[in-house]
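Data deposition worksheet. Section B asks for the primary sequence of the deposited chain exactly as it was used as input, without tags or linkers unless they were present during the calculation. Section C holds the resulting structure in token form. Section D is free text for depositor observations; keep each observation to a single sentence. Incomplete worksheets are returned to the depositor.
Section A, Depositor: J.P.
Section B:
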Amino acid sequence: MKHILYIEMDNCIGCRSCLAACTQCGGHEERNRNYVYDVNPFVNRQTIPMMCLHCVNPPCARSCPAQAIQITPEGAVLSALVEKCVGCQNCTIACPYGIPKFDEEQNLMYKCDLCYDRTKEDIPPMCASVCPTNTLQWITEDELAAKKADHQLGQWHASKPYDPLETETRVQISLPGILQGKQKLY
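Section C:
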């Protein structure tokens, strides 16, 4: 059964264990490929994890003149191939989520590859495998449907395009606690 990365934003406690795990994923050269942002550091301690959302029709890949960004059969959008990337940075500009980063020293774009060496074997990505609060989850499509049924908020996840700047993504995001103004106790 196919698994997907599911993010429950309101569970994040800012521990950054996902960042530490990301550096240990194969092929990352001990470099973080995801981020944890402080939402409003002067008001509260709310944090959110951000990683590539693996768009169905990725703007980063469409904007690459060298076709350096590959999309796997499973839908993972990979970092730029070293042998093809020309360092134009079109991908960093094209991404509506601000995910790809450019390494000046290597003249190369890098981003979350969804731990493709693991996920192609249906093993959870490193970030999801260490998250202590289940903010990042590796779930089946049936489990996702059950989670959606638990929330009667109508369209509650940010994965279908409604605006020209948005794009359909393979990573699903839940914000029900934040949207309802409720605090969740894990």
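Section D:
The first strand starts at residue 3 and ends at 8.
Helices lie at 17-23, 59-62, 90-94, 116-119, 126-130, 141-150, 176-180.
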